[in-house]
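Problem 3 from the worked examples.
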Amino acid sequence: MGIILWIVFGALVGWIASMLMGTDDNQGMILNVVVGIIGAFLGGWLMSFIGKTGITGFNLYSFLVALVGAIVLIFVVKLFR
């Protein structure tokens, strides 16, 4: 995916994950993008760790993988706060 699609994908995933985890009021647009992109890498790594494919493009499966990664990232950050 190109850089623009990574930013859009990251913003969407980060926003949904922050709403699900109750941190939407604390995060701005930039942090949502960062959480979404890091969550996509984390979700892809977790899926490859259990033998599945990671992010494959701009599709529903990749969205769910990135969403799981973003939720795990927010959960870990909340543990240390």
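Problem 4, a separate protein:
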Amino acid sequence: MSENRGSEIIGAFIIGGLIGAALGMLFAPAAGSETREKLGEWFDENKTKAGEKLERLEGEIKKRKEQLLKSAEE
């Protein structure tokens, strides 16, 4: 149960960081088209990185879940 809670917290930090970065760029003193272009580039660059981190996190969670189930059976 606590591992599930931990992954929720990590997910919340990731989402919060993405939202904060997007809002920061939107309120930056630049032209709207320039800001949208920068924001699009930033999302493209970080989309792959975020996906890879989430895959690693999911793998770690699955591994720990299996360990806990195995421990519970013993």
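Solution to problem 4. Residues 2-73 form one domain. The first helix runs from residue 2 to 26.
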